[in-house]
Amino acid sequence: METVLPPGAAELLGRARRVVVFTGAGISAESGVPTFRDDLTGLWARFDAEQLATPEAFFADPELVWGWYEWRRARVRRAQPNAGHLAVAAIEDLIPGTVVITQNVDDLHERAGSRAPVHLHGSLFAPRCVTESAHPADFPTTTGEEVADDEGGRIAPPRCVRCGALVRPGVVWFGEALPGAALTAAVEAASACDVLLTIGTSGLVYPAAEIPHIAAHSGATVMQINPQPTPLDEISAVNLRGSAAQILPTLVRAAWEFAGKP
User: Fold this and answer.
1) Which among 85, 109, 119, 121 is annotated as catalytic?
2) Considering Cα of 17, then 23, then 27, then 31, what sign does the dihedral take?
3) What is the CATH number of the domain that holds 210?
4) Is residue 2 part of a domain?
5) How many domains does the chain contain in total?
């Protein structure tokens, strides 16, 4: 079915000079990437996500936790960016200086062409050392081929070849604060933008869910793309019901035409 945009939606984006694109699990779900709570099949079906996604779980059984994250990384590698991810990258081409902020830990924005997305919850592809400095880990890249497609299994985490410390997944676990640099960059971008697009996020996970509110309180227009109502409806000037892959390409094409781009 053809997407029909409400009057003025394309103009809002086409006129914007400072845009923030804020994405959640919904945009990656369209590529077949489940949320971490849903990524518990095969061997992992007997676990609760909170049994695996904590610092305590990793230090108690690092092989178990690393094995789950390697299995998740292998599944993400097999996924491909969808039309929503590609449209986000197109917004960056349309409006230089656009800042992409994501709650997702996959690399689909990067593979779609986004240049430097801000990962509020870390990334499956940026493991770091367990030392207090938590610097990015330096270790031989694995392919994920040792992870069974259907079951997964225990895998011993590597050690950083630079410092010798154990390597952990570079994601934000329960009980951990968001990365300071990422949060600062997100808040600064939201405070300075004139349009914020929130895409595929429930608006329930804090403190990340504050980002659209910061933009709205700073005078920006918030536009939401989501199949279902969310708590962000009340601050959104435009609510587009549907998936990112369905709606976002139409919105970007219309904004591109409005801006007079060849």
Assistant:
1) 121
2) positive
3) 3.40.50.1220
4) no
5) 1
Q: Which residue has the tokens 């991810």?
A: 85
Q: Is 67 helix (H, G, I), strand (E, B) or coil?
A: helix
Whether 135 is catalytic is no
What's residue 30's pLDDT? 93
> How far is residue 154 CA from its own chain's centroid?
26
- Rounded CA gap, 218 and 15, in Å? 18
Q: Which residue range forms the structural domain that includes residue 115?
A: 9-258
- Angle subtended at Cα 198 by Cα 246 and Cα 242, rounded to the nearest 5 degrees: 25
Which DSSP helix (H) or strand (E) runs through 91? helix 83-94
pLDDT digits (tens, 9 = 90+) for 41-56: 555 566 777 778 999 9
What CA–CA distances, in Å, run from 62 to 149, 150, 166? 20, 21, 9
Ranges of beta strands (E only) in the chain are 19-23, 99-102, 118-119, 122-129, 167-171, 195-199, 221-226, 238-241
DSSP assignment of 186-220, as one string? Answer: HHHHHHH-SEEEEES--S-STTTTHHHHHHHHTTP
Q: What is the pLDDT of residues 215-239, one digit of tens each?
A: 999 999 999 999 999 999 999 999 9
